[in-house]
Amino acid sequence: MISKFDEKLLKRLEVLECSTCESRVYQDGSNDPGVSFKTPTHISPEMSGPMVAAHENEHVVREGAKAESEGREVISQSVRLFNGICPECGKSYVSGGVTETTTAKKAEKNTRVRIHWQSGGYEVIIENYRNDKVRKKNGFQIY
Fold first, then answer.
1. Which residues 6+ apart lie within 8 Å of 115 measured at CB?
2. Whole-angstrom Cα distance, residue 36 to residue 58?
3. Other beta carbons less than 10 A from residue 48's beta carbon
4. 104 touches 115 (CB < 8 A)
5. What CA–CA distance (Å, rounded) separates 20 from 126?
6. Which of 8, 53, 72, 77 is in Cβ range 3.0-4.6 Å of 67 for a Cys bridge?
7. What is the DSSP secondary structure assignment for residue 39, as one 8-state letter?
8. Any idea what DSSP says for residue 119?
9. Which residues pair with 130 in a beta bridge?
10. Other residues' Cβ atoms within 10 Å of the Cβ of residue 109
11. What confidence score (pLDDT) does residue 132 get?
């Protein structure tokens, strides 16, 4: 008779099949129709890292292209990958990922921003070289 510990070790060594890892599927939850994993897809624990990272990179590329087509610029992009450990065999795997993109309206080429500190707060002065000024008190306007 095989103990639970021995069974888990045999599954980790792939001598015995792990039904949890065999039945694990990945599916994209975004509203972007142009990325992979729109239908549930099985990925082995060993391939989950590179496959999920590649999938999240698709989001990075597509969000950058979308921003460019809308006349916006990418301020920052980040990708987070999440890890898990199979309770049945103990193998680690990447359980999913999230891509976050922040964009902003492109500034005019001849624009500069000055921040003037005052005792009651601060004033943001946005100037372009035609000497037009836009003032925003106590904060930035986010587009």
1. 122, 123, 124, 125
2. 8
3. 22
4. no
5. 57
6. 72
7. S
8. T
9. none
10. 7
11. 43
| Residues contacting residue 73 through CB under 8 Å, at least 6 positions apart | 67, 103, 104, 106
Q: How far apart are the C-alpha atoms of 113 and 6, rounded to whole Å?
A: 66
CA 95 vs CA 27, 35, 59, 116: distances in Å: 11, 17, 17, 47
Count CB atoms within 10 A of the CB of residue 62: 16
Long-range contacts of 119-123 (CB under 8 A, 24+ apart): none
User: What is the rounded CA–CA span in Å between residue 59 and residue 99?
Assistant: 7
Tokens of 48: 């989950």
For the segment 69-81, what is each residue's pLDDT rounded down to a tens digit? 988 888 889 999 9
If pLDDT is split at 50, 70 and 90, which confidence band does 112 have?
Answer: low
Higher pLDDT, 116 or 58: 58
